[in-house]
């Protein structure tokens, strides 16, 4: 259990103490917000959402919370209304005695569950927040006005979310698998169908279109000419995975972030879960906020900006994936070179070029750097929940660079793809940072 989780749970435990009327101090603690995001992260993980769908939950939840805080501190933060595609207006507070931190937490929870989950997924946690407020002396008027304002902002963000084409993509035509040389086909052990082939139809929030940043074409498929770039890429990843060092293995495992791994042992099959790539970066935001001693509003801002960067990066990357539909290393190597070869990590169910984790990590790193700076060294404890020891980084960009190497070491992305994807994700992050006016 990570440090801020322990501290936040201790805050919730204080709800049994009725002598103090310190609700303002309690709700100004940014650790409480970090723990709320952590709670949503676990609910997302438990529901087996794909990384792309998970990014949608993080986006709307964090933007809702940010809009509440921007309304509460207009001299420090600017509303995203008019800055994000389709988000035109946000209700202004009509009461002067709102606790904006409490309202922001409630809005986060409401949007976090409502955009995808069945109702009630966060209800127990919401009840604990309300008890925390009343047990620490929040006056009834403040309590009710905070809930009312939270509801009005939540309704506006929910209405905005319903126009992002998500529901339409649920009934879009299924992906057609064509088993031709160099083209993506399902991979073992689950042989799952292609995930979210229509995600490029989702509304972007900052970038102008899915074609705004286009990478170079992938290397042409060629496994017969040993001098071709594609051939060299295939043999390089094959050799690398077959001789991974302990450090390379650790890097691959640390950034695996497979939300659902199917384990097969003889006739026994079972699944294990981890945070998705976006969920891992949500955790890093909390770690960075604690390390930077950020206040509540700045912490919310960091989460919102990072979730926006991740969301747009996924859309742009998925457009490229299903434009080229390239085969995974596992497919090519087992068919043409070594039928017994296996990647170190389990291959996810979508085309190889480009790399989603590389995209969103580079984009997220730019967002975080814009809030906390490029020299914030930290220990990433995110994977301790899954039995993986912490890993130290000099900066968010340092972590993003390692993420790119991890997908190559894992045997699921060619090295060329990771390099291109990191550059593209960085461009998206830079654009988002340059366009969004959040902190005044």
List keywords for this structure.
440 residues, two-stranded antiparallel ribbon, 4 strands, mainly alpha, 4% strand
Structure description:
The protein is mainly α. It has 2 domains: 3-167, Vanadium-containing Chloroperoxidase, domain 2, CATH 1.10.606.20; 176-435, Orthogonal Bundle (Vanadium-containing Chloroperoxidase, domain 2), CATH 1.10.606. It has 16 helices and 4 strands. A two-stranded antiparallel ribbon has the order 1-2. Strands 3-4 form a two-stranded antiparallel ribbon. Strand 1 and strand 2 form a beta hairpin. Helix 3 runs parallel beside helix 12 and helix 4 (51-72) crosses helix 7. The longest helix has 29 residues, at 296-324. The radius of gyration is 22 Å and the shape is elongated. The two termini are 35 Å apart. The relative contact order is 0.14.
Fraction of residues in β-strands: under 5%
The structure class reads: mainly alpha
Counting DSSP H or I runs of 4 or more residues, the number of helices is 16
Widest beta sheet: strand line-up: 1-2
Shape: elongated
Rg on CA atoms, Å: 22 Å
| Total strand segments | 4
CATH architecture descriptor of the largest domain: Orthogonal Bundle
Provide the domain count. Answer: 2
User: How many angstroms separate the termini?
Assistant: 35 Å
